[in-house]
Amino acid sequence: GLPAALPTLPLELTVLYNSLLFTAGASDSAIEGEADGIRKGLLRVLEACGACGQDLSMEELWEKVLQEVTVEELQAPLHRLGALQAAWWLAAGRLGSIAGLFQLLSTAEDTGRGHCSKGQNELLSLLKAWQVPAEEASLRLVQSAEDLKEILCTAAAFLQGLQELEAGNFPTALSLLQEAAGGFCSKKVLAQIYTCLGCCAQRMGKPQTALQHLKRALQVDFQCLPALSHAAAVYHELGETDTELQALALLYEALEKTPPAVASSSPYFLMRTELLVHTPTLTSLLRHCHPSEVKYLLAQRCLQDGRVTDAVEHYLDFLALLQEGLQQQVPLDGSSALPRIPEVFLEAASALEQAGRHRDAITVCEEVIRRTTDLIPRMLQVEERLEQPECPSPGAGLAGELLSQKKESLCCLAWRTAGYLLQGWAWAKLGKSKEAITQFSRECLEDAVSRCTCLSEAENLPPEVEVLQKIRLLSLIGRGTQFLELGKHKEALLDFQHGLQVSPGDPAAASYLVQALWKLDRKQEAAAQWQKLSQSSPGEQKGKGRPLPLYLVLCLEQAVFPHSETLASTVQDYLGTAAQDTSS
User: Fold this and answer.
1) CA proximity to 147, closest of 184, 179, 181
2) How far apart are CA 159 and CA 417, in angstroms?
3) Is 196 left (phi over 0), alpha (psi -120 to 50) or beta?
4) Angle at 21 between CA 16 and CA 25, to 5 degrees
5) Disulfide engineering: 214 pairs with which of 198, 382, 472, 574, CB 3.0-4.6 Å?
6) Cα distance between residue 85 and residue 57, in whole Å
7) Which letter does DSSP use for residue 450 in this model?
8) How far from chain centre, in Å, is Cα 516?
9) Tens digit of pLDDT for each residue in 339-354?
10) Vertex 289, ends 285 and 295: CA angle to 5°?
11) How far is CA 400 from the centre of its chain?
């Protein structure tokens, strides 16, 4: 409450500088908001000089103070306070304000030395050109301005590198992050910077460089588990499955253990880089996986790679985690690697079936069917596209809610029909053709058609409807093969014909159709169909559309016609004989 006086202002500003540093350092959370103490301090300076600036913004206030206050004794305290102001602005992402402030802080000679040449970063050039004021022996600082300058340079490079990374300017991001890695920070932050460098290199299509950065991150701080997670993703991209699985196993083991508190070997500062850099991009890159997410990735990768025994073990471990309230532990904001829980059950059933545990697979599918049955409406009308309108209108909220409910109903229908499909194939593997036909015939066919009325009319189908189409095709092929096993060739022929209506040109359905015609002694029709199939291009045979869910891949493999060469040889012999008979 005392009037501002020039002789005591250097001490007053130094006390303010120290107290703000203590305030920032006492909290381990990121700096937010404005530093009100700095504004009050600048107004005290103007008051002592007979001026005022109550209505000015912080940028305008700094400009007024630095241009009008020429007292030599105040220059050093003001410069130190300006550096502290830059820290608050850096935490808020106000880089332009920082650049303007340091242009004011620089003398004419400094500006000349700090001129930003082409290719250099303007803000970093200004920060490096700033001449740190000499400390006075009578005014002790809790953190030197020289250290604060180094931290500002490191944090500015780190923050701008993250911004360029988010914008997709990867070469610039790489350069800035490398600048930050050579700066002044703790080992924890250095490991984070190397992790970001690894992610940047990966996005640039340089996986080996990415691995070098990620390994360096772990060498600097072995508790930087996001680096290990990203390394596993790079190994997956490279197709190095063994190494990827080893990395995921190490990650799971590390996440399961509670690491002991390790004292930092880095020097402690009140103002630190980690207090200044906090962006959504950094949060996303450094997100710690939940152990269950890693367990699921292990199961999924093993199943994709054909390591069925390991996949079953991991899936069963994951399903056991569900009993521990998994949904409450995993984020639901889309950042999790976990799919919807019914999909995990279906993948587990697929793994069990591949391992020969057909009855266990049937049991797991029954759980999916039981839990989704009551969630599906009696009739489900599906439009060509299920998308939110770009321009909101009155009632758009209700329309969006209806679309969301419709998509959810489609998902539930797809999961339940997939459960019946997997059960059908499991019964077929057990040699129970009648039971298999029953499962193939249930909601995979009749109910899916009656509930979802546009399975084949529209071109731009929602992904859930594409999945339902594929399930319907695989169910028809599955049921048709079982009819063939029972010698019911006419019923089999009808199923394969319907399958080709669902998916024209499908090679499995077409091959089975040829076989069914042949068994019905309709050899001329069979030969004509075989010629049509053999003339279609491989691209047409593979078909179009989105990749299938993992839980349907096994069904797709089981539906492949197994006797292509034998059938081709038989038909060719028939055509050759028919040609000879015609010529004679």
Assistant:
1) 184
2) 49
3) alpha
4) 150
5) 198
6) 13
7) H
8) 46
9) 899 999 999 999 999 9
10) 140
11) 24
Q: One-letter amino acid identity for 159? A: L
366 membership: H or E segment, kind and range: helix 358-372
Strand pairing partners for 452?
380
How far apart are the C-alpha atoms of 324 and 226, rounded to whole Å? 24
Q: Which amino acid is at 474?
A: L
What phi and psi values does residue 452 have, to the nearest 5 degrees? -115, 105
What domains can you pick out in the chain, each with its CATH number?
A: 1-107+123-130 (no CATH), 143-259+271-289 (1.25.40.10), 339-377+405-582 (1.25.40.10)
DSSP letter for 268, please: P
* pLDDT higher than 60, residue 186: yes
Distance of CA 255 to the CA centre of its chain: 19
| Measured distance CA(328)–CA(296) in Å, rounded | 16
Asked if 200 and 278 touch (Cβ cutoff 8 Å), the reply is no
What's the DSSP call for residue 380?
Answer: B
436-491 tens-digit pLDDT: 999 999 855 555 544 554 545 555 678 888 899 999 999 999 999 999 999 999 99
Place of tokens 């499995």: 508
250 to 64, 139, 228, 237, 292: CA distances (angstroms): 57, 51, 8, 18, 14
Phi, psi (degrees; rounded to nearest 5) at 545:
110, 180
d(CA 327, CA 251): 20
DSSP secondary-structure letter at 205? T
- Residue 582 and residue 554: Cα distance in Å, rounded? 45
pLDDT in tens, 39-90: 999 999 998 888 888 889 999 999 999 988 888 889 999 999 999 999 999 9
408 exposure class (CB count in 10 Å sphere: 0-12, 13-18, 19+): middle
Neighbours of 47 (CB within 10 A): 15
**Torsional class of 216: left (φ above 0), alpha (ψ -120 to 50), beta (otherwise):** alpha
pTM: 0.84
Q: What is the rounded CA–CA span in Å between residue 32 and residue 117?
A: 33
Query: CA 89 to CA 99: how far, in whole Å?
Result: 10
